[in-house]
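Enoyl-CoA hydratase domain-containing protein 3, mitochondrial: structure tokens wanted.
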Amino acid sequence: MPDGASGRSASILVLEDRDAVATLTLNRPAARNGLSIALLDALAAALRDIATDPAIRCVVLQAEGPVFCAGHDLKEITARFADPDGGHAFFADSMARCAAVMQAIPALPQPVIAAVQGLATAAGCQLAAACDLVIAAEEARFCTPGVEIGLFCSTPAVALSRAVPRKAAMEMLLTAEPIGAEEARRIGLVNRILPGAALRAETAALAARIAGRSALAVQLGKRCFNHQTGLPLPQAYEVAAAAMVENLLAEDAAEGIGAFLAKRAPEWRHR
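Answer:
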């Protein structure tokens, strides 16, 4: 994807890149942007393309309609109860595809910002929690309601429990009660809250600011951050120190330090 503006539209996903920011828009508003197999596949393909595109330095994930994402497509799931195996093969395949997308987001070299304009529920909450940053509209709500239909949100719990404290995650999972944007920010699921009318413009501005940094430094930093958080303290510092050394040896570090000392704007080479 080159710099400048371009885009392409599909029935379920809209992709656009502009000035080093790629925007992925879930586009199944009539189905509450449910994560059908087709939408999961479209997301997986888009993320694969972005991961290898050096022109993209930040990603925004947003959605059309009043709902950010209602989770897995329950109509698609229900239809498979009639399969000879009761849906076993389909359910296993669906969960594997979803898990691959949720892992691709933190593994992506570029930071990913979720812009949540409405309800993010079940795997939709998982999708937001998997992103590096979450910007929410004032009316946004987050929920893991699986227990209400006899289906504990076990896979959403993976991303949720890594984004918020353990007991906050368990309360959401056990009660199925939706939480508003303010509570989501209080527990650490949301970074910023904005009026709904300003959500897309302000999120785009934040993404542009991140995209204006050294891509190499940001990508090294994201990779190191995600790696060290699961390690004991001594190993975490070993990983972080190695990342700092690698970063210091990069051209952009010399340029950035030199620019700071000379009181001028840096000219990033992204290497």
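The radius of gyration is 19 Å. The longest helix spans residues 88-107.

Cheers.
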